[in-house]
Amino acid sequence: MDFIQSHYDYSLFTKRIGADLVVILVYVDDLLVTGSKLLLIQQVRKDLQEKLKMKDLGELKYFLVIEFSRYQKVKDNDSEDVQLEENRNYQRLVGRLLYLTMTRPYIAFVVQVLSQYMHAPKRRVVRYIKSTPGLDLFMPTGSCNKLIAYCDSDWGACVESRRLVTGYVVKFGDALISWKSKKQGIVSRSSAEAEFRRMATTVTEIVWLVGLFKELGMDIALPVTARQQSKLLHI
Q: Which InterPro entries match (predicted)?
């Protein structure tokens, strides 16, 4: 079918037909097909069905337990929070919260803190999640070719290990597309070293995104702006 495997994501395959593009994303035995024209998408799905035994689930609604919707959906939730009595239940819950950070970037820092104390269950973040079921990631449509990144760090944030906690978010136009909050594996010996580490982490993500967008036929405007606190850098 003449699809080309991405050098930046080995589960991503692209095919160019003139000025149009078709993309296939593979996860185990699940396929996500998208492209610039509906007719091309339908043709690729037909070709796949001829070569593989597969079931067409139609328009994207769920993928990797993530719900996709073209409209904002708000659900009522009157259920009460359940007290966590066993550490095992708490550990399973933290695992689910880690997965939830894929669509709830604003809890990334809280979840990485909770994951460090698996022996001491906390319920505050659970109450917050249950009280805000309608908060989703919004991906606005429109033409844009600009990336902008924001990064920050808290030097010696962990009172036990004194390790640095870094975080960044990357936006494509008005859409939030990448984020991370993580405690580093080593101790930074100065605030200057901490700044270099957070910028290195952010720049690594920017380079990967620029390369991925280039494979998808999108030329990102360079240099990319990265903001850290009051400083402004161009990469």
A: DNA/RNA_pol_sf (IPR043502), RVT_2 (IPR013103)
Would you kindly state where each structural domain of the chain is located, as residue ranges? 4-60, 86-131, 146-229
Amino acid symbol at 229: Q
For 89-126, letters b (16+ CB in 10 Å) and e give ebeebbeebeebbeebbebbbbbbbbeeeeeebeeebb
Where helices occur in 69-120 by DSSP H, the ranges are 87-100, 108-114
Amino acid at site 194: A
Which phi and psi angles does 182 have, rounded to 5°? -150, 145
**What is the bridge-based pairing of β-strands 62-63 and 66-67?**
antiparallel
Environment class of 19 (CB within 10 Å of its CB; exposed 0-12, middle 13-18, buried 19+): exposed
Nearest C-alpha neighbor of 121 from the set 101, 94, 159? 94
